[in-house]
Amino acid sequence: MKLICGPMATISHPAFRILVEKFGGCDEYFTEMINAGTLLTNGPFEKFYLNPAPVPEKIVWQLTGRLGEHMVNAAEVLVKLPGIGLDLNMGCSAPDIYRYGAGIAWMLKDISETRDMVKGVAGVVSEYNKNVSSENKKRLSVKLRLGDEDFTDEGFFLFCDMLVDCGVNLLTLHPRTKKEKLARPPRYRYCQTLKERYKGSGVSVYLNGNVRDENSYKNALIACPDVDGVMISRAAVQKPWIFRQLKACGQQETLQKNDADELQNIDLKELAISYIHDIEIYQPPEFWHTRLQRFFAYFCDNFQFAHYAQTQFLNAKNNSDLLNRIDDFFQKCPDARYIKI
Q1: Rounded to two decimals, what is the model's pTM?
Q2: Which burial class, exposed, middle or buried, applies to 302 when counting CB atoms under 10 A from its CB (0-12, 13-18, 19+)?
Q3: Is the peptide bond prior to 54 cis by the omega test (within 30 degrees of 0)?
Q4: What does the DSSP assignment read for 56-124?
Q5: What is the share, in percent, of the chain residues with pLDDT greater than 70?
Q6: What would the pLDDT profile of 126-156 be if each residue is shown by its tens digit?
Q7: Are 228 and 205 a contacting pair, CB within 8 Å?
Q8: Would the pLDDT of 259 be above 60?
Q9: Closest CA to 65 of 30, 41, 29
Q10: Facing residues of 172 across strands?
Protein backbone atom coordinates (compact mmCIF):
# COMPACT_ATOMS: atom_id res chain seq x y z
CA MET A 1 0.00 0.00 0.00
CA LYS A 2 1.46 3.33 -1.06
CA LEU A 3 1.42 6.27 1.34
CA ILE A 4 1.16 9.69 -0.27
CA CYS A 5 1.60 13.19 1.12
CA GLY A 6 -1.21 15.27 -0.33
CA PRO A 7 -1.02 18.72 -1.92
CA MET A 8 -1.51 21.60 0.51
CA ALA A 9 -1.28 25.29 -0.28
CA THR A 10 1.61 26.99 1.59
CA ILE A 11 2.72 23.61 2.99
CA SER A 12 3.77 21.25 0.18
CA HIS A 13 7.24 22.66 -0.44
CA PRO A 14 10.84 21.47 0.16
CA ALA A 15 11.00 22.53 3.82
CA PHE A 16 8.02 20.37 4.66
CA ARG A 17 9.27 17.41 2.63
CA ILE A 18 12.59 17.63 4.46
CA LEU A 19 10.71 17.43 7.75
CA VAL A 20 8.73 14.36 6.69
CA GLU A 21 11.84 12.68 5.30
CA LYS A 22 13.47 12.87 8.73
CA PHE A 23 11.07 10.13 9.76
CA GLY A 24 11.51 7.96 6.70
CA GLY A 25 9.28 9.88 4.32
CA CYS A 26 6.48 8.49 2.17
CA ASP A 27 6.13 7.07 -1.33
CA GLU A 28 4.99 10.22 -3.15
CA TYR A 29 4.81 13.95 -2.48
CA PHE A 30 2.24 16.03 -4.36
CA THR A 31 3.25 19.66 -4.71
CA GLU A 32 1.01 22.56 -3.85
CA MET A 33 -1.01 23.83 -6.80
CA ILE A 34 1.06 25.37 -9.59
CA ASN A 35 -0.95 27.97 -11.49
CA ALA A 36 -0.64 27.37 -15.23
CA GLY A 37 -1.01 31.01 -16.23
CA THR A 38 1.55 32.26 -13.72
CA LEU A 39 3.98 29.51 -14.67
CA LEU A 40 3.79 30.47 -18.35
CA THR A 41 4.42 34.16 -17.62
CA ASN A 42 7.49 33.30 -15.51
CA GLY A 43 6.14 34.73 -12.27
CA PRO A 44 8.81 35.87 -9.79
CA PHE A 45 8.11 33.05 -7.35
CA GLU A 46 7.69 30.14 -9.76
CA LYS A 47 11.21 28.84 -9.18
CA PHE A 48 10.28 28.18 -5.57
CA TYR A 49 7.24 26.14 -6.59
CA LEU A 50 9.38 24.11 -9.01
CA ASN A 51 12.10 23.07 -6.54
CA PRO A 52 11.80 19.27 -6.11
CA ALA A 53 14.14 19.00 -3.10
CA PRO A 54 14.97 16.87 -1.25
CA VAL A 55 13.55 13.85 -3.15
CA PRO A 56 13.00 14.73 -6.83
CA GLU A 57 12.18 11.14 -7.67
CA LYS A 58 9.09 11.21 -5.41
CA ILE A 59 7.52 14.41 -6.72
CA VAL A 60 4.12 14.73 -8.40
CA TRP A 61 3.56 18.18 -9.90
CA GLN A 62 0.02 19.39 -9.36
CA LEU A 63 -1.31 21.75 -11.98
CA THR A 64 -4.22 24.15 -11.69
CA GLY A 65 -5.71 26.80 -13.95
CA ARG A 66 -8.92 27.96 -15.61
CA LEU A 67 -7.96 27.85 -19.31
CA GLY A 68 -7.37 24.58 -21.12
CA GLU A 69 -4.75 26.10 -23.40
CA HIS A 70 -2.73 27.29 -20.42
CA MET A 71 -2.99 23.89 -18.76
CA VAL A 72 -1.64 22.14 -21.84
CA ASN A 73 1.21 24.60 -22.33
CA ALA A 74 2.14 24.44 -18.65
CA ALA A 75 2.17 20.64 -18.84
CA GLU A 76 4.89 20.91 -21.48
CA VAL A 77 7.04 22.66 -18.88
CA LEU A 78 6.27 20.39 -15.94
CA VAL A 79 6.61 17.08 -17.78
CA LYS A 80 10.31 17.78 -18.32
CA LEU A 81 11.01 18.15 -14.61
CA PRO A 82 12.10 15.28 -12.35
CA GLY A 83 9.44 13.25 -10.67
CA ILE A 84 6.66 10.72 -11.04
CA GLY A 85 4.31 12.76 -13.17
CA LEU A 86 1.63 15.42 -13.41
CA ASP A 87 -1.62 15.78 -11.50
CA LEU A 88 -4.62 17.84 -12.60
CA ASN A 89 -6.41 19.49 -9.70
CA MET A 90 -10.16 19.01 -10.03
CA GLY A 91 -10.81 18.73 -6.31
CA CYS A 92 -10.03 22.06 -4.70
CA SER A 93 -13.32 23.61 -3.62
CA ALA A 94 -11.96 26.79 -2.03
CA PRO A 95 -14.33 29.57 -3.14
CA ASP A 96 -11.62 31.72 -4.70
CA ILE A 97 -10.28 28.76 -6.72
CA TYR A 98 -13.72 27.56 -7.82
CA ARG A 99 -14.94 31.03 -8.81
CA TYR A 100 -11.74 31.53 -10.79
CA GLY A 101 -12.68 28.51 -12.89
CA ALA A 102 -10.06 26.12 -11.53
CA GLY A 103 -10.10 23.18 -9.13
CA ILE A 104 -13.49 21.51 -8.87
CA ALA A 105 -14.82 23.92 -11.50
CA TRP A 106 -13.38 21.48 -14.08
CA MET A 107 -15.90 18.87 -12.90
CA LEU A 108 -18.77 21.33 -13.40
CA LYS A 109 -17.88 22.94 -16.73
CA ASP A 110 -19.24 21.76 -20.03
CA ILE A 111 -17.88 18.23 -20.38
CA SER A 112 -16.41 18.97 -23.80
CA GLU A 113 -14.22 21.76 -22.39
CA THR A 114 -12.89 19.51 -19.64
CA ARG A 115 -12.36 16.63 -22.06
CA ASP A 116 -10.38 18.80 -24.46
CA MET A 117 -8.14 20.02 -21.65
CA VAL A 118 -7.46 16.53 -20.32
CA LYS A 119 -6.81 15.17 -23.81
CA GLY A 120 -4.39 18.01 -24.46
CA VAL A 121 -2.42 17.38 -21.28
CA ALA A 122 -2.50 13.62 -21.84
CA GLY A 123 -1.09 14.22 -25.32
CA VAL A 124 1.81 16.16 -23.83
CA VAL A 125 2.58 13.35 -21.40
CA SER A 126 2.21 10.68 -24.09
CA GLU A 127 4.54 12.51 -26.46
CA TYR A 128 7.13 12.91 -23.72
CA ASN A 129 6.93 9.20 -22.84
CA LYS A 130 7.68 8.18 -26.43
CA ASN A 131 11.18 9.55 -26.12
CA VAL A 132 12.27 8.27 -22.71
CA SER A 133 13.12 4.90 -21.20
CA SER A 134 10.42 2.95 -19.40
CA GLU A 135 11.71 3.89 -15.94
CA ASN A 136 11.50 7.59 -16.81
CA LYS A 137 7.96 7.64 -18.19
CA LYS A 138 5.58 10.08 -16.51
CA ARG A 139 2.16 9.39 -15.07
CA LEU A 140 -0.95 11.52 -15.52
CA SER A 141 -3.35 11.69 -12.60
CA VAL A 142 -6.40 13.66 -11.49
CA LYS A 143 -7.39 14.58 -7.94
CA LEU A 144 -11.13 15.04 -7.73
CA ARG A 145 -14.24 15.09 -5.53
CA LEU A 146 -17.70 13.63 -6.06
CA GLY A 147 -18.91 16.82 -7.69
CA ASP A 148 -21.50 19.40 -6.76
CA GLU A 149 -24.24 18.81 -4.18
CA ASP A 150 -26.62 17.50 -6.85
CA PHE A 151 -24.17 14.94 -8.25
CA THR A 152 -25.44 11.52 -9.30
CA ASP A 153 -23.62 8.23 -9.24
CA GLU A 154 -24.13 7.86 -12.97
CA GLY A 155 -22.76 11.32 -13.71
CA PHE A 156 -19.77 10.86 -11.41
CA PHE A 157 -18.71 7.52 -12.86
CA LEU A 158 -19.24 8.70 -16.43
CA PHE A 159 -16.98 11.67 -15.66
CA CYS A 160 -14.31 9.30 -14.34
CA ASP A 161 -14.70 7.12 -17.44
CA MET A 162 -14.06 10.21 -19.56
CA LEU A 163 -10.85 10.90 -17.65
CA VAL A 164 -9.63 7.34 -18.11
CA ASP A 165 -10.58 7.31 -21.79
CA CYS A 166 -8.51 10.48 -22.25
CA GLY A 167 -5.40 8.84 -20.82
CA VAL A 168 -5.48 9.43 -17.06
CA ASN A 169 -3.57 6.69 -15.22
CA LEU A 170 -4.54 7.46 -11.62
CA LEU A 171 -7.57 8.89 -9.83
CA THR A 172 -7.23 10.29 -6.31
CA LEU A 173 -10.69 10.66 -4.84
CA HIS A 174 -11.62 12.83 -1.89
CA PRO A 175 -15.13 11.38 -1.54
CA ARG A 176 -17.01 14.52 -0.54
CA THR A 177 -18.99 17.03 -2.59
CA LYS A 178 -18.00 20.62 -3.33
CA LYS A 179 -19.52 22.05 -0.17
CA GLU A 180 -19.15 19.17 2.28
CA LYS A 181 -16.81 20.05 5.13
CA LEU A 182 -14.30 17.83 6.89
CA ALA A 183 -16.78 17.09 9.68
CA ARG A 184 -18.84 15.06 7.20
CA PRO A 185 -17.53 11.48 6.99
CA PRO A 186 -16.03 10.73 3.58
CA ARG A 187 -17.93 8.24 1.45
CA TYR A 188 -15.14 5.72 1.06
CA ARG A 189 -17.33 3.29 -0.87
CA TYR A 190 -16.81 5.42 -3.98
CA CYS A 191 -13.05 4.82 -3.81
CA GLN A 192 -13.57 1.07 -3.65
CA THR A 193 -16.14 1.16 -6.44
CA LEU A 194 -13.74 3.10 -8.66
CA LYS A 195 -11.05 0.49 -8.10
CA GLU A 196 -13.46 -2.32 -8.95
CA ARG A 197 -14.69 -0.42 -12.02
CA TYR A 198 -11.20 -0.19 -13.50
CA LYS A 199 -9.91 -3.57 -12.38
CA GLY A 200 -7.44 -4.93 -14.90
CA SER A 201 -7.22 -1.65 -16.82
CA GLY A 202 -3.99 -0.44 -15.27
CA VAL A 203 -5.75 2.56 -13.70
CA SER A 204 -4.82 3.15 -10.07
CA VAL A 205 -7.03 4.65 -7.35
CA TYR A 206 -5.88 6.54 -4.26
CA LEU A 207 -8.10 7.27 -1.28
CA ASN A 208 -7.98 10.72 0.32
CA GLY A 209 -9.83 12.02 3.38
CA ASN A 210 -9.89 11.72 7.19
CA VAL A 211 -6.91 9.39 7.64
CA ARG A 212 -5.18 10.86 10.68
CA ASP A 213 -3.87 7.92 12.74
CA GLU A 214 -3.52 4.16 12.79
CA ASN A 215 -7.17 3.45 13.60
CA SER A 216 -8.57 5.68 10.86
CA TYR A 217 -6.04 4.21 8.42
CA LYS A 218 -7.17 0.68 9.22
CA ASN A 219 -10.84 1.66 8.96
CA ALA A 220 -10.25 3.24 5.57
CA LEU A 221 -8.61 0.07 4.30
CA ILE A 222 -11.44 -2.06 5.64
CA ALA A 223 -13.84 0.06 3.59
CA CYS A 224 -11.53 0.14 0.55
CA PRO A 225 -9.34 -2.97 0.61
CA ASP A 226 -8.35 -2.75 -3.04
CA VAL A 227 -7.18 0.86 -3.40
CA ASP A 228 -3.57 1.37 -4.43
CA GLY A 229 -2.68 4.11 -1.99
CA VAL A 230 -3.78 6.37 0.83
CA MET A 231 -3.17 10.12 0.67
CA ILE A 232 -2.71 12.09 3.89
CA SER A 233 -2.52 15.86 4.14
CA ARG A 234 -3.35 17.81 7.30
CA ALA A 235 -2.48 15.00 9.69
CA ALA A 236 1.02 14.92 8.22
CA VAL A 237 1.53 18.58 9.17
CA GLN A 238 0.68 17.91 12.78
CA LYS A 239 2.54 14.59 12.82
CA PRO A 240 5.28 14.46 10.17
CA TRP A 241 6.10 10.99 11.49
CA ILE A 242 2.64 9.60 10.62
CA PHE A 243 3.86 7.77 7.50
CA ARG A 244 6.45 5.95 9.59
CA GLN A 245 3.74 4.88 12.01
CA LEU A 246 1.41 3.68 9.27
CA LYS A 247 4.15 1.74 7.52
CA ALA A 248 4.79 -0.06 10.79
CA CYS A 249 1.11 -0.84 11.45
CA GLY A 250 0.79 -2.16 7.91
CA GLN A 251 3.44 -4.78 8.54
CA GLN A 252 3.16 -7.98 10.52
CA GLU A 253 6.58 -7.56 12.08
CA THR A 254 7.35 -4.83 14.59
CA LEU A 255 9.93 -2.12 14.13
CA GLN A 256 13.49 -3.04 14.80
CA LYS A 257 14.57 -2.03 18.29
CA ASN A 258 16.87 0.75 17.14
CA ASP A 259 14.08 2.28 15.06
CA ALA A 260 11.68 2.08 17.98
CA ASP A 261 14.20 3.75 20.26
CA GLU A 262 14.71 6.52 17.72
CA LEU A 263 10.99 7.29 17.67
CA GLN A 264 10.31 7.08 21.39
CA ASN A 265 11.06 10.73 22.10
CA ILE A 266 10.63 13.43 19.49
CA ASP A 267 12.07 16.84 20.27
CA LEU A 268 9.32 19.19 19.08
CA LYS A 269 11.37 22.28 19.80
CA GLU A 270 14.24 21.07 17.64
CA LEU A 271 11.83 20.18 14.83
CA ALA A 272 10.20 23.61 14.98
CA ILE A 273 13.52 25.43 14.85
CA SER A 274 14.86 23.29 12.01
CA TYR A 275 11.66 23.87 10.04
CA ILE A 276 12.02 27.64 10.35
CA HIS A 277 15.63 27.32 9.18
CA ASP A 278 14.58 25.33 6.10
CA ILE A 279 11.79 27.79 5.31
CA GLU A 280 14.40 30.53 5.17
CA ILE A 281 16.49 28.44 2.77
CA TYR A 282 13.78 27.20 0.42
CA GLN A 283 11.15 29.96 0.44
CA PRO A 284 11.36 33.66 -0.44
CA PRO A 285 11.10 36.12 2.47
CA GLU A 286 7.71 37.23 1.16
CA PHE A 287 6.39 33.73 1.91
CA TRP A 288 7.92 33.13 5.34
CA HIS A 289 5.11 34.52 7.44
CA THR A 290 2.20 32.73 5.76
CA ARG A 291 4.08 29.42 5.42
CA LEU A 292 5.02 29.38 9.09
CA GLN A 293 1.58 30.45 10.27
CA ARG A 294 -0.09 27.63 8.35
CA PHE A 295 2.40 25.07 9.62
CA PHE A 296 2.17 25.99 13.29
CA ALA A 297 -1.63 26.13 13.15
CA TYR A 298 -1.46 22.32 12.83
CA PHE A 299 1.87 21.46 14.47
CA CYS A 300 0.89 23.10 17.77
CA ASP A 301 -1.81 20.48 18.23
CA ASN A 302 0.96 18.24 19.55
CA PHE A 303 1.30 20.43 22.65
CA GLN A 304 -0.65 20.11 25.87
CA PHE A 305 -1.32 23.84 25.74
CA ALA A 306 -2.03 23.92 22.02
CA HIS A 307 -4.21 27.02 21.93
CA TYR A 308 -1.70 29.04 23.93
CA ALA A 309 1.14 27.93 21.65
CA GLN A 310 -0.85 28.76 18.51
CA THR A 311 -1.70 32.20 19.81
CA GLN A 312 1.93 32.91 20.62
CA PHE A 313 3.47 31.51 17.45
CA LEU A 314 0.92 32.75 14.93
CA ASN A 315 1.16 36.30 16.25
CA ALA A 316 4.94 36.48 15.88
CA LYS A 317 6.05 39.60 14.00
CA ASN A 318 8.93 37.93 12.19
CA ASN A 319 11.12 34.83 12.32
CA SER A 320 13.36 36.21 15.04
CA ASP A 321 10.33 36.96 17.18
CA LEU A 322 8.95 33.49 16.43
CA LEU A 323 12.16 31.82 17.59
CA ASN A 324 12.08 33.83 20.81
CA ARG A 325 8.46 32.86 21.38
CA ILE A 326 9.27 29.19 20.81
CA ASP A 327 12.10 29.38 23.33
CA ASP A 328 9.86 31.15 25.83
CA PHE A 329 7.06 28.61 25.37
CA PHE A 330 9.26 25.62 26.09
CA GLN A 331 10.81 27.34 29.08
CA LYS A 332 7.32 27.81 30.51
CA CYS A 333 6.09 24.39 29.35
CA PRO A 334 9.12 22.08 29.44
CA ASP A 335 6.93 18.97 29.52
CA ALA A 336 5.59 19.87 26.08
CA ARG A 337 8.98 19.63 24.41
CA TYR A 338 9.11 15.86 23.91
CA ILE A 339 6.44 13.55 22.59
CA LYS A 340 6.51 9.78 22.74
CA ILE A 341 5.14 7.71 19.92
Answers
A1: 0.95
A2: middle
A3: yes
A4: GGGEEEEEE-S-HHHHHHHHHHHTTSSSSEEEEEE----HHHHHHT-TTHHHHS-HHHHHHHHHHHHHH
A5: 96
A6: 999 999 999 999 999 999 999 999 999 999 9
A7: yes
A8: no
A9: 41
A10: 143, 206
